[in-house]
Amino acid sequence: MTGKNRKLGIMGGTFDPVHYGHLVTAEAARLEFDLDQVLFLPSGVPPHKTDKQVTSAEHRYMMTLLATLSNPHFEVSRLEIDREGVSYTIDSLQILREQCGPDCELFFITGADAMFEIIEWRGSDRLLRIAHFIAASRPGFSLSELPPDTRRWVDEHRNRFHLLNVPAMAISSTDIRNRVRMGRSIRYLVPEQVEHYIRRHRLYQ
Ligand code: ATP
Ligand code: MG
Fold it and tell me: How far does the centroid of ligand 2 lie from the alpha carbon of residue 66, in Å?
C-alpha cells in the first residue's frame, strides 16, 4: 500500500449488513476526489454499539467482501476486526497513515449522520490532521442542522472538510435487519450476493 501521491479513501462502518447506500457513497467519493482506492473498514466492537447486539465480525467482513469484489478500486480491511477490544477510528487511521506512507493522502468518508457525533469521537482533532474528511449527504440528515459547536469546529477546519452529494438512498442497515426479521424483501437494497449470504447464514432472524 505505498506509492507516490496516492489518495486513499477509507469508509468505516459496522456494515451490519453492507448495503447500496454504502457502495454508492464510496463510489461517489472515489470519483469526486479522484481516489485511487477505497478501503472498507468494518469495525470490530464499535465504540458506540457495545451495548447492542452486533453480528459477528466475520459475517460482516464476508458480506462486505462479497459486496465490493466486483469493483477493482474497492478493498476490505481486516484491521479493526483482527484487533482486540474496542476499535477507535483514530487508532486505525494512525496505522493506515503509517502503512500508506508520506506521499499518501487519506480521505475518511462518512455519511451526514456521523457528522452529528464526530465531535465526541476520541481524538477528532487529531483525526483531521491525519485525514481529510468527506461528509456525504444522507436522506434524513441535514448538515445545515448541525449543532453550533460542531458547526464552529467544522468551520475552523474548513480546509480539511469536504461535502459530497451522493444519489439519495434512504437505506439503513437497521431497516434491512428489521425487514429480514419480519420476512420482508431486501432485494435491490443490498447486492444479490449479500442477500444470499444473509439467507444462507440465517442472519437477522
Ligand atoms: P445502522 O442502521 O446499523 O447504523 P447504517 O446503515 O447507518 O447502519 P453504518 O455501518 O452505521 O450503516 O454506516 C457506515 C457509514 O456509511 C457511516 O458513515 C454512515 O453515515 C454511512 N452511510 C450509511 N448508509 C448511508 C446512506 N444510505 N447514504 C449515505 N451514507 C450512508
Ligand atoms: Mg449507522
Answer: 20
Joined grid coordinates for residue 7: 489518495
Output the residue whose Cα is nearest ligand 1's atom 31: 111
Distance in Å, CA 4 to ligand 1 centroid? 31
d(CA 30, CA 134): 11
Find out whether the beta carbon of 14 lies less than 6 Å from any atom of ligand 1. yes
CA–CA gap between residue 102 and residue 121 (Å, rounded): 25
d(CA 53, CA 170): 23
Q: Whose CA is nearest to atom 19 of ligand 1?
A: 111
Q: Which amino acid is at 193?
A: Q
Report the alpha-carbon distance of residue 48 to residue 64 in Å, rounded. 20
How close is the Cα of 114 to the center of ligand 2, in Å?
8
Give the number of domains in the chain.
1
Ligand whose nearest atom lies closest to the CA of 25: 1
Q: What is the CATH number of the domain that holds 15?
A: 3.40.50.620
20-46 pLDDT, tens digit per residue, is 999 999 999 999 999 999 999 999 875
Q: Is the pTM of this model over 0.90?
A: yes
CB of 172 closer than 6 A to ligand 1? yes
For the cut 90, the answer to whether the pLDDT of residue 93 exceeds it is: yes
Asked if residue 1 is part of any domain, the answer here is no
What's the mean pLDDT in 116-123? 82
Give domain status of residue 205, yes or no.
no
Has residue 132 been placed in a domain? yes
